[in-house]
Design a protein that fits this description.
Mean pLDDT: 95
Shape: globular
Low-confidence stretches: 1-24
CATH topology of the domain at 305-316 and 356-457 and 509-681: TIM Barrel
Structural class: alpha/beta
Distance between the termini: 30 Å
Largest sheet: 6 strands, antiparallel
Strand content: 15-25%
């Protein structure tokens, strides 16, 4: 591969080649900076702290030194112009930690179009950690911004329709970097209470992005997904190769679940068994205790919701109309065993259920119900998040708290996607009907509360949103009629910006108020959790209305941490600055080292880094006095060829498409569940293993 690397680096790279190379592909890394050959002094700029080139064992490296409480920040540049890394999956670096304790760093990869030096999306940045005495080969993933430069998109992309990532590992998304023009790498060694010495070397592009077979003979590349839903043309640790592998994995996991029981700190509900006791009401509620907001469980114990969405057996439908050639195997409709997983009169196949049948037998549904609950209890989770298949009718011995996602049916309002018209006289009754469809949960102590729909698109610009309401909806639209009346009462029109903003606030307020009122009428003991506000809907009016009427405001936040809300526009600042509890209802970190082509919105360098980022993210929530929970999305990976309705084909799960838990991630989830209560209460610290 590269010439100037140490023995540890050589062994790791050989191991990676064994995992990722199939056949006899010949592919070399490209050296960007090795601090000796062709190195120019202008390639390193020191913004903060101490950095200098030194000789180690006959090789030049860059050594960073920081005293306690200090950070080091440097910038790395090409000798001239930019680096074209389109052919590569990773920007890799050898990072050696000579300090007495673990160090943490941040890496920001930039192109000439980066407007603001931020560690958050839409920029491309990574968080990493290096243990004392370790030389870590850190494979920073090159997330490809497909709209910045069409040249960064592979020529064969049309052969993979409706996919956010294509083989081998090319994410094609709406954030990230122009991989054809990488202009700068910012490296930040974060401050610590101890002295730090870290050495950098061998900054390089690594791992083939485009399959050689796809470039030379595209027709021979297909099919590329095996009978277990996995990518065929690469190998990795733990890949399922046969039905026997499935059975052996099942046996090993059964033993592991015995070794790792539910955290001893949990009571029956997953609350803090040995923590303070508060007023018990028989249902979940919220209370501020010593400056921090908490859920209080039905028994009166403090509860912080560590959960996951879609726990259990979820449909994993894939399209086989225009994608049948993707798959090694699709059953015939008259197959007596697997034909049932083909959807009649639809070109769709449930690939996950077919794998479950192979692994657990014909009665897999009941088997998997118990297994899913035993898994997440063992992993240290205490909440079944939205869309969890087994939230209701759980076995008493395995029962866990859960949240219910309501689907409110009614008239839509353009352009606000997913919102039911709150000015419709039937709106509150529509909410009541949605609750009654979930009747068993209304008095169940284990039900925390309700979400109303999901990720309502409140609009990027409130002024334009209100104008579009007038233009795009029919005359009998209740919201349009309310807008016309609002303007008429004020003797003004759509040119009056203050009036438009006033109506936008009224619209949002009306929606949340009526949802709250309806829930109070039919489920007075349950908490109103809002509609999982995502970053594109973080309007200040939305945050204010949600804080006014929700018991706990829910947000889907795909960022590195919860230190700040990543609000897109300054007009929405300050955002959600009231003293109200909130919970994160979606976050994740995916990687592309296990046969997936898309990480999900949250990304990591590799499976180890997924676990590290999980701990960092949840700890940031535990430190936040208003945050009362965080739910991962999702329990299982999405299909390799993408879901049937959207382009999601992500490594977003705790388990793979072949139902294999990711051990590096699960290890850190377990540790977090074990230590989260004393950490939030200020009794101890913890870090990833």
């Amino acid at each position: 591969m590269v010439e100037k690397i140490g023995i540890h680096s050589v062994s790791c790279i050989i191991l990676m080649l064994c995992f990722f190379a199939v056949g006899a592909e010949s592919f070399r890394d490209i050296m960007l900076i090795d601090f000796e050959r062709d190195f120019k002094p202008h390639q390193v700029v020191v913004d903060q702290g101490e950095a200098r080139r030194i000789m180690v064992a006959g090789n030049q490296v860059l050594e960073l030194k920081a005293q306690p409480g200090e950070a080091v920040k440097i910038r790395l540049f090409p000798t001239q112009g930019t680096w074209n890394l389109k052919k590569y999956v990773n920007l890799m670096a050898d990072i050696s930690n000579l300090s007495s304790q673990e160090v943490s760093f941040r890496m920001l990869i930039k192109d000439p179009g980066v407007q603001e030096e931020s560690w958050y999306r839409p920029n491309l940045s990574h968080n990493g950690w290096v243990k004392p005495g370790e030389t870590r080969i850190f494979p920073a993933l090159l997330v490809r911004h497909k709209y910045k430069n069409k040249a960064s998109v592979p020529s064969y992309v049309d052969r993979f329709p409706r996919m956010h990532g294509v083989p081998h590992a090319q994410m094609l998304v709406w954030f990230g970097v122009d991989v054809t023009q990488v202009s700068e790498v910012v490296f930040l060694l974060e401050e610590q209470p101890f002295a730090q010495t870290v050495r950098l070397d061998n900054i390089r592009g690594s791992r083939r992005a485009s399959p050689e077979l796809m470039e030379k003979n595209p027709d021979a590349f297909f099919p590329f997904i095996d009978v277990y839903g996995q990518y065929k043309h690469e190998a990795w640790p733990g890949k399922i190769q046969s039905d026997r592998d499935l059975i052996e994995a099942k046996k090993r996991e059964a033993e592991e679940l015995v070794v790792h029981p539910r955290p001893m700190v949990f009571n029956r509900y997953g609350g803090w068994k040995d923590g303070p006791s508060l007023r018990a009401t028989g249902h979940f509620r919220v209370e501020k205790v010593e400056g921090r907001w908490w859920f209080v469980d039905p028994a009166g114990k403090l509860f912080w919701s560590l959960g996951c969405n879609a726990i259990g057996l979820q449909m994993s439908r894939v399209n086989i109309g225009d994608k049948a050639h993707f798959y090694d195997w699709i059953p015939e409709r008259d197959d007596p065993v697997f034909g049932r997983y083909l959807y009649p009169q639809r070109d769709q196949f449930d690939s996950r259920c077919a794998v479950m049948h192979r692994k657990y037998g014909a009665a897999y549904r009941e088997v998997y119900k118990d297994l899913s609950l035993r898994r997440v209890r063992s992993w240290g989770l205490n909440t079944l998040g939205g869309w969890s298949d087994y939230a209701e009718n759980q076995p008493d011995a395995l029962k866990m708290p859960y949240c219910v996602a309501l689907y409110i049916r009614g008239r839509s309002v353009k352009p606000i996607d997913k919102m039911v018209d709150p000015f419709d006289p039937d709106f509150e009754q529509a909410v009541i009907r949605a609750v009654r469809r979930e009747a068993a949960s209304a008095n169940d102590p284990f039900c925390i509360g309700y979400f109303d729909n999901n990720e309502i698109h409140w609009g990027e610009n409130p002024l334009e949103t209100v104008r579009q309401i007038l233009l795009d909806n029919p005359a009998d639209s209740p919201t349009r009629q309310a807008l016309v009346s609002y303007l008429k009462e004020r003797q003004t029109d759509v040119k009056n910006s203050d009036a438009l903003l006033g109506f936008y606030s009224l619209l949002v307020d009306t929606y949340y108020r009526k949802c709250r009122n309806a829930l109070r009428e039919v489920a007075p003991h349950k908490l109103y959790l809002g509609n999982r506000i995502f970053d594109g809907a973080m309007r200040k009016e939305v945050g204010l209305a949600a804080a006014t009427y929700c018991d706990v405001v829910s947000f889907n936040i795909y960022e590195k941490d919860l230190d700040a809300f990543n609000v897109r526009t300054k007009r929405d600042l300050p955002f959600f600055d009231v003293d109200k509890p909130f919970m994160v209802t979606e976050f994740n970190f995916g990687a592309l080292d296990r046969g997936k082509f898309f990480t999900g919105i949250g990304y990591a360098a590799d499976q180890r880094n997924r676990g590290e980022n999980f701990v960092r993210y949840v700890k940031s929530g535990l430190r936040n006095p208003r945050c009362v929970g965080a739910h991962w999305y999702s329990y299982g990976d999405s299909p390799t060829g993408s879901r049937h309705v959207i382009a999601e084909n992500a490594n977003c799960g705790f388990v793979s498409s072949a139902d294999s838990p990711y051990p590096e991630l699960i290890k850190q989830v377990r540790k977090t569940g074990k230590h989260m209560y004393p950490y939030r209460y200020g009794e101890m610290d913890f870090t990833h293993d």
